[in-house]
Write a structure and sequence with these properties.
Largest sheet of chain A: 4 strands, mixed
Oligomer: homodimer
Distance between the termini of chain A: 36 Å
Number of helices of chain A: 8
Largest interface: A-B, 30 and 30 residues
Chain lengths: 228, 228
């Protein structure tokens, strides 16, 4: 039995959860609090970053979304993780890197800090509400992210190319977190919306979208609805 | 013939250059200015991030260090890119991710911004010198990075395990940039120093360390010396 150490609103954790569910890999979820340091978590992944995939015997510990996705690709060669063609694989990895790198660094990461993690920290320290200037910068970066998603989905069947791949699940991890936080204006990005409606219809995604996150504000009413 | 779009002090570019040289892949370098947006670069990699590997016909464009390293692994299965064993590969990827992620985000990235990129930008805008508080935070993160490198190299022959791999070249990319910027106190980290001395002795690394970067302050005297 596999255990996945995750946080419900961690976009990288969501991407890997969706991928594991698509591969029908039975996984027990272990909740982590990414805004707190934990000795147990650092023992599994010294960077403290989520997700972390562990088998029951602890003889297998795969730390971080990059290593997990490539591990699932190595161990499921005919699954829907990555393409078989070398150049198609490279393009899917570019998209994965786009979300793990640029989107996480300029949008999803700072937004989670400002709207969720700081809220949990403030229960001890009494922190201030999100800074208006910080939120403005993040939202400007978000508009660029959404325009690029719309541009990609205008041109392609799936984000990495013709086939559904890990790139779609990684992107859906980020998009679903941004949507939970009510930060997406879907009316302006119709191609991205059509792609996300197809993602929302998948059983793995439906289960994930049915969850609510304790301590975070409720998502918008259409959040879990594939017909939005 | 391959072209690598890079910047001489970009740690990810350096890691990939070292790997290409170890694989004896003849590559022409194309200089980029990462502190400036460029339409030509965005056409090759929409995120604008370096490095980018392009063949002469432009039928192959591999964008970003993650996709390039995995592409080199896919296309050189018996080379020294990644291990063959699945769990060893996962550990090497964890180390690569450590440098691409945590080290870049908390140390190398902000240090390059403060000490190099802002300097180029300021030639147009008249920016202020590096902020003392920012540098203090970065240097505290750097001490943690160096302690972890020392810890790993105490326990292992190479960073990813028993064998030299892409993890060592990726780490050497970051370490060599930090050393160029004269930010490393080698006396306190003897295991890391021994590992880096072995890396410095490799022909690919010697060629890289012989370069100087126009517009950046000169590196310390011992920078290129394997016996430091």
């Amino acid at each position: 039995m596999l255990h996945l150490h995750h946080y419900r609103l961690c976009p990288q954790s969501r991407g890997v959860r969706l991928l594991l569910a698509e591969l029908k890999a039975e996984t027990t979820l272990v909740d982590e609090r990414p805004w707190e340091w934990s000795a147990e978590r650092a023992a599994l992944n010294p960077s403290g970053e989520l997700p972390i995939l562990v088998d029951q015997s602890k003889s297998v510990v795969i730390a971080g979304s990059y290593a997990i996705i490539e591990f699932l690709s190595d161990t499921n060669p005919v699954g829907s993780v990555l393409a078989r063609d070398t150049l198609d694989r490279a393009e899917m990895r570019r998209i994965i890197d786009w979300y793990h790198g640029l989107c996480q660094r300029t949008v999803t990461g700072p937004l989670l800090e400002a709207k969720v993690y700081d809220r949990f920290r403030s229960q001890e320290k009494g922190a201030a509400p999100p800074d208006a200037g910080t939120l403005r910068t993040i939202r400007s970066n978000l508009r660029y992210q959404l325009r690029y998603l719309d541009h990609l989905t205008e041109q392609r069947n799936w984000l990495g190319g013709d086939a559904l791949s890990a790139a779609d699940f990684v992107a859906a991890g980020h998009v679903s977190v941004l949507d939970y936080l009510d930060e997406i204006s879907w009316a302006e990005i119709s191609s991205a919306k059509t792609w996300y409606a197809r993602m929302k219809s998948r059983p793995a995604m439906r289960a994930l979208l049915a969850e609510r996150v304790p301590g975070a504000a409720a998502p918008p009413a259409y959040y879990a609805d594939p017909d939005f």
